[in-house]
Design brief:
four-stranded antiparallel β-sheet; alpha+beta; binds 2-acetamido-2-deoxy-beta-D-glucopyranose; 3 helices
């Protein structure tokens, strides 16, 4: 899947964000609006975030309304995106599995593409830290991420 040059982009659109966070109790199994990618871009209300690593394999997100950030977990990465400037004000935590873990994973007979750290969990832990967990090349690992001015993995 992760072919070279393949760039996963994803869109954040103000209205969609409101739908997520607005606490609507209406039937949510069907989207209230249907728009194509092109239509969305033409509204000029769309910010596109391109992961500099290309393929993101997004699996988990966490909205931090208080700090106005969106945390995004992908393959070997966690991003902290600024809701004000999705494409600019982001921070990135590179969190790959170690070479040893990858080797062990491949020796267990897993496909090489699965032998990476796919970040699956992002939770608020306390006022200063998020808890995040990844598949760790079939050896799950968790870490605290200190949020605030200096974002770092502990
Ligand atoms: C979006 O921006 C383009 C280019 O600036 C402009 O031609 C278009 O009319 C704008 N669309 C809307 C819905 O404002
Ligand atoms: C939050 O949890 C982390 C990890 O256990 C800890 O280091 C930090 O001091 C805690 N922060 C607060 C405000 O309790």
């Amino acid at each position: 899947m992760a072919s070279a040059g393949y760039v996963l982009t994803w869109l954040l659109w103000g209205y969609l964000l409101e739908l997520w966070t607005g606490g609507h109790t209406a039937d949510t199994t069907h989207p209230r609006l249907r728009l194509t990618h092109k239509e969305l871009l033409e509204l000029n209300r769309t910010s596109v975030f391109h992961s500099p690593f290309g393929f993101l394999d997004l699996h988990t997100m966490l909205l931090d309304e208080y700090q106005e950030r969106l945390f995004v977990g992908g393959k070997d990465l966690v991003y902290s995106l600024s809701l004000e400037q999705i494409s600019n004000g982001y921070r990135e935590i590179h969190w790959p599995s170690t070479a040893l873990k990858i080797e062990e994973c491949i020796m267990k007979g897993k496909d090489a593409s699965e032998c990476a750290n796919y970040v699956r969990v992002l939770h608020h832990y306390n006022r200063t830290h998020l808890l995040t967990c990844g598949t760790g090349a079939f050896d799950p690992i968790c870490a605290f991420i200190r949020v605030g001015y200096h974002l770092e993995v502990r």
